[in-house]
Amino acid sequence: MRILTCILSFIALAIFFMGTRKEKTVQVVFLSGCNEYVSHISLKKYKDHLEKSFAGIKIVLIQADGTLNKKDEYSALKGTEALNDCDVLLVFTRRTTISGKAMEDIKKYVQSGKPLVALRSSSHGFESWPEFDKEVLGGNYSNHFKGTPEKRQIGVDGIFYPVGEPSGPLLNLLVNTVYKDHPVLNGVRNFASPYSLYKTSPIASDAKLLLTGKTIEGEQPVAWTRKNHGGRVVYIGLGGVQDWLNADFVKLVTNALFWAGDYKVKKK
Fold this sequence. Notes:
By secondary structure, the protein is an alpha/beta fold. Helices cover 25% and strands 26% of the residues.
């Protein structure tokens, strides 16, 4: 009888602690530094969307700043200490001239094999780290086909805002049927983008091609996954302002974040 009482007490105690245990919070860092595609606007809205839609997720948005370089992109970055507690990093940069401690912190995170998702111009996101594309993402960026994004105009607050519409042929995104059941493609259908098709071929031999882009000019890999120092990496060659209005694109990025970090986050 005494043994049975002890067993029941142990079970009750275990249930109590299970009921009171807090679910793990996923620490996500957004690294924004792409004026050409106004990542400071898109990522802020996406951050709000994720925090409103999912439980157990904490997002820190760190924004590049400083003097504009010859590519109209930023040269400085503060707040990279957030990478110390980061579970998944989302990068959206372009031709930044970030250096010093900030760049060292980024390299330390990436080279440690932690999860990474990179968008659009991040393939050429760091002027001081040109190898990032081939060595980490597994891409081979060499310019793009016809097409230009919206023009940018600096507001009274000193921030770039999009003006007008993108130009160029329509970009059709086709799901690779070989990997149609991959978690990153869950719920994602074929869709289209008004932005230019990047020339990314050939991608790394160990990469799994998820999306192919086609225009009247040709076709190229657009989204894929691979491993970097054992960690999951996802590259998605999209991210213009109007892409973020497309539910399939948003679903793709969200899937990529949660899959890369190997987390199952519950919807609110």
